[in-house]
Amino acid sequence: MRLIVAGSLLALVTGLTIATGSSRTQSAPVKNPTYAEHVAPLLNSRCVECHRPGEVGPFSLVGYENAKKRSSMIAAVTESRQMPPWKAVEGYGEFHDENRLSKEEIAMLDTWAKNGAPRGDAKKEPKAPEFSGEWSLGQPDKVISATQPFKLGAEGEDVYRNFVIDPGLTETKYVTAIDVKPGNAKIVHHVIAFLDPSDQGQKLAAKQNDGQEGYTSSGGGVGFIPRGALGGWAPGVRARNLPDGIGYKLSPGTKIIMQVHYHKSGKEESDLTRVGLYFADKPVEKECSIFWAANPIFRIPAGADNHRVRWDIPIPADLTAYWVMPHMHLLGKSMKAWIKKKDGTEVPLVHVDAWDFNWQLVYSLQKPLKVQAGSTLCVEAFYDNSKGNPNNPSNPPKAVTWGEETTDEMALLVLNYTRG
Fold it and tell me: Cα(56)–Cα(44) distance, rounded to whole angstroms?
């Protein structure tokens, strides 16, 4: 099947990558690990970026007492690879800042927890990392937000709230990075900044009439097809500048739809999330675009536990790819994407073999990938629509097709690219 769909309804982040750290392999398992010599260096390099006071992690892992208190949990979530958040299969594509623990590191954390989380020689403990300033890339050129906090109810379904923001530009700017500061980390699941040059968002907001700013949509959509997106944020993601010479065009009059996905905490909450925009300070030679490669024509039968959806997309012109992001909903199991050259050679893009709707990550290519016209983008996804899928939103299962609701499904691969 050959399909190209532009303007689908979800795209996370332009030029963003996962928190610092790269996979390290130890030559042999550590038999008697201690916090001071083994655990603290690992937590400092891989975890405290998020798990520190004032950040999005639900608890701090800075210092021995915090780590000891969570030692069993640390062992469990690293063994299951829930943490750190990195879903791409090792060896299939090469990415910036791979946040993956080696088998030896996971075994070390497990041994440390089972041994009672010994501290070791406190004098050997490394100093906790220091983080400079509120914004990781320095003060943004422009900070945008809603004009007042959004009030979220205590219980019920998640809320996708769309805040329509005029950045107030008088001349065209090129965005090279964005950073996001959730106002209330307990309830902010992720944030996306969509582009709206036609004021469709303002029209929808005018119809909301619930006494709050913006409007609510469902399933990650914004209620219309946006021109594109500047980027976004999810826990574990940090800002990264695009390469010199490329950027996202932001013209005067274009509104930004700041979509915040809220997850209710059990009590009434409020949030005022901010997005920092970084503008190019060097000439921009190529405008970035987002390529929404989707297959909207599928049907996942009720009860199917390994349903395959495949789509091939011909590439009509030379392009350069910079990052890639798979997207499915709750029935997703895995997704693999690759480029098939004209000579039949295959170039891996990304493979997520244990899809998790809660960790929809962007994978930034270590080297921009040149793709020649006449090549083919190939994508293959598998879905579990059986009773055995604990994430299945329907009980009993029912046939599922493409749709914006979380209870629907999507088969979508998002790429950031420039022409040529």
Answer: 16
- What stretch of H or E contains 207? helix 200-208
Cis peptide before 84 (omega within 30 of 0): yes
43 vs 22: CA distance, rounded Å: 13
Q: Is residue 68 predicted with pLDDT exceeding 60?
A: yes
- Boundaries of every domain in the chain: 21-124, 135-285, 289-419
pLDDT at site 53: 84
Asked if domains 135-285 and 289-419 share a fold, the reply is yes
Number of helices and strands in the chain (H, E): 5, 24
Q: Which residue in this structure is represented by tokens 């805040």?
A: 163
pLDDT at 5 over 60: no
State how far the Cα of 217 lies from the Cα of 171, in Å rounded to an integer.
31
Domain 289-419 in CATH 2.60.120.230: yes
Question: pLDDT tens for residues 312-355?
Answer: 999 999 999 998 989 898 999 999 999 999 999 999 999 999 99
280-322 confidence digits (pLDDT tens): 999 999 999 888 899 999 999 999 999 999 999 999 999 999 9
How far is it between the farthest Cα atoms of the chain? 63
Structure tokens at 260: 């915040």
Structural class in CATH, domain 135-285: mainly beta
218, amino acid identity? S
**Are 81 and 354 in contact, with CB atoms under 8 Å apart?**
yes
H or E stretch including 337? strand 332-340
3-state secondary structure 75-106: HHHHHCCCCCCCCECCCCCCECCCCCCCHHHH
- Least Cα distance to 325 among 108, 11, 57 occurs for 11
Q: Which of 62-71, 98-107, 200-209 comes out lowest in average pLDDT?
A: 98-107
Residue 31: pLDDT band (50, 70, 90) is: confident
| Structure-token pair, residue 177 | 């990075």
What distance in Å separates the CA atoms of residue 160 and residue 78, rounded to the nearest whole number? 30
Measured CA to CA, the distance from residue 83 to residue 136 in angstroms comes to 22
Helix (H) or strand (E) holding 238: strand 237-239
